[in-house]
Amino acid sequence: MKVINWGIIGAGNISASFTAALKQMEYTELTAVASRDVNKAKKFAEKFGIRKWDLVLPYL
């Protein structure tokens, strides 16, 4: 089956809960996180083993 790649916008409590649930699912991979605060995005990425992180503002 094909793996679905996910990206998360936001690094708060809801995103953490969603990410924890996503990690339990088969055929999914969380590949990126973006946040208004680059340090928060980096910490979130490190906590959940996400390879890419960035600021969300340049994409709006």
UniProtKB/TrEMBL annotation:
SUPFAM superfamilies: NAD(P)-binding Rossmann-fold domains. It holds the Pfam family GFO_IDH_MocA. Gene3D superfamilies: NAD(P)-binding Rossmann-like Domain (3.40.50.720). This is Gfo/Idh/MocA family oxidoreductase. GO terms for molecular function: nucleotide binding; oxidoreductase activity. Belongs to the Gfo/Idh/MocA family. Keywords: Oxidoreductase. Residues 4-54 form the Gfo/Idh/MocA-like oxidoreductase N-terminal domain. Signal peptide: none annotated.
